[in-house]
Amino acid sequence: MWALLDRGDAAIVPSPSYPIHIFGPLFAGADLRQVPMRSLADPAAREDFTGDFFRNLETAWNVGWPKPRVLVISFPHNPTGATVDLDFMQRVVDFCREREMIVVHDFAYADMGFDGYKPPSILQAEGAKECAVELYSMTKSFSMAGWRVAFLVGNSEVVQALVKLKSYLDYGTFQPIQIAATVTMNEAPDYPKEICSIYESRRDVLIDGLGRLGWDIPKPKGSMFVWAQIPEPYAEMNSVEFCSHLVRECDVALSPGVGFGPGGEGFVRFALIENEQRIRQGLHNLKRGLPKLG
Question: CATH top-level class for 191-289?
Fold first, then answer.
């Protein structure tokens, strides 16, 4: 964001969104238009997701001054697991080209598509290199969490601006990490498929188990997260209260939806970071600590 925004500029970020997408423009001193999107938050309301997204995007552009310079998106989406097709990406590119905006697509879950779904790159859209950049990280696909080995592709001017900025900020990643990343990509290029299969299996164990408890959630087609509305018997609690209840009564830790922006209130996020045995233990604990379900 430091390469794209300055004080007095504006950026659009959907709500809910991964926190750094929200705070990145703020760190750069820009104004943030955080656009709440119910259809993004609620998996049961995804039928009109595209229409809802672009209606809100149009409103965010039309209302206020200055006009936004940057749109930040990420699909498959964290925290909601929402997915899109290539037609959606084409509409994003067309929208930004018409308004001389830059769209930053965080493609962290590029390899996390389930049930035969293959997430599209925004760079597959016609004209994308005029207005789009895309980030890919080895964090999820190659299990290199913490090392932050990643790359940016797309619009050449934006890429070069980031190169220049980083030349002032740091010198380079610790060489053994660079070597490990290179060896991994050269010698285990199919590893992301294995990882995807593991997350898909964990997703099924979790959602099927929650369904047996009476907490019905649609299965996301991507990401490593499950996004769930707070069950009706506990709807009087906000997301922080509900997550605190689960820690106290179930020894289960979830992320409260409000932590991902105002559009996330009323929801919680499961992370598929435990093996299936641990997930089943967590389900057993939820059954004990949520007696109103069922």
Answer: alpha beta
